[in-house]
Amino acid sequence: MMEIRSTTEQDREVFVDTFHAAFGRFPEDTTEDGGGAWWSAVEMDRGVLAVTADGRAVGTAAAYSFELTLPGEVVVPAAGVTVVGVVPSHRRRGVLTAMMRHQLAELRERGEFLSVLLASEAVIYRRFGYGPATYTGRLTVSRRHAELAAPRAGDARPDSGSVEVLRSGECREVLEEVYDRYRRAQPGAISRPRRWWDLRAGQPPIAPAQRYIALHRDADGVPDGYASYVLSDGVPDAVRRTVTLTVDETIALNDEAFTALARYVLGHDLITEAVFKHVPADHPLRWQLADFRAGVVGAEMDWLWVRLLDIPRALTARGWFADGELVLDVDDPFLGEHGRYLLTVRDGKAECVPTGRQPDLSLDATDLGSIYLGGTTPSTLVRAGHIRAHHPAAATLADTLFRTDQPPHCLHWF
């Protein structure tokens, strides 16, 4: 017998020990990127614990209380699923499935219609209805070829602001304020609750690990961007020592701020290369380099995975940028649910109601999660054989409706 139950603050110690055992780590460990006690921000009133008949805890799952920015700068509550694990002695026994089923039911009871996660393994979470919805990568630029080209557009504006160098511990409130302004306007971005900053949970620049901060201020002296970075020595070669400047994250509220920060990073003395982490695929930095090949894209991967818990509510919550109608036939195998919905979009708003009309697209909950933020086009999944288009114009119509004003991106780690 296995009991799956919700947790309270009294369970914190056993909960922390159990999920660390599931991953073969110890609570004293820090993350490889310099993070602190990231698990200190776990909300124990949102945890799930799997307990054997003899009282041993063997599995955990939890959720953070986040806000997610949807297309159209709509900010909604979202559960950030985390610390999902089963100790090795009890894997392949249905513990994970039972916990995920319990958690989804609990999220619905709370009235939440969206949940998100970062997947440690891509094959696991499709089973539970999550689909990859945002993507990220890193850009490595050789210092020898890091010159930025002069902009050719006649209306390109020179930066009239300034860059100040600080330590992360000196400017927490500024970082918090700039990030919050950024995430409210960026589809796919999630909030960083005050609790995270107070506990210094997560990864730099939130975590205790020392980082330099290049802080950009506009012409009026108002902070509008920052780059969190650290220098590290690489493996010496036969000729010289390599020194890498790694940017944990670059937050910019406008293109001028980003360009100024990139210029600062690429102009840093004593480095041989700069690595920008969490760069979206469509970012213009490569195009700003005088030598296009100087920027090498690598480590491209999925980041934020999305699951819809209430399809009509989720589809009517986000903003839309084209008018039209689409009938979606959605299967949810994990929850044993099936529904057909008429999505009608007019003037940026949507209505979504059950219908008996013939479908334009047939898809499952995973596919719907992937296309929801606009980071994956429906036609891509049609071509991949995941979504069925019932007539030739269906995929094009769906692409038009689900497109967004800007691609979704998430760089918060949780």
TrEMBL record:
Domain named N-acetyltransferase: which ranges? 2-153
| PROSITE patterns the record matches | GNAT
Which residue windows are coiled coil?
none
- Matching InterPro entries: Acetyltransf_17 (IPR041380), Acetyltransferase_Eis (IPR051554), Acyl_CoA_acyltransferase (IPR016181), Eis_dom (IPR025559), GNAT_dom (IPR000182), NAcTrfase_Eis (IPR022902), SCP2_sterol-bd_dom_sf (IPR036527)
Record's keyword terms, sorted? Acyltransferase, Transferase
| Assembly information from the UniProt record | Homohexamer; trimer of dimers.
Q: What is this protein called?
A: GNAT family N-acetyltransferase
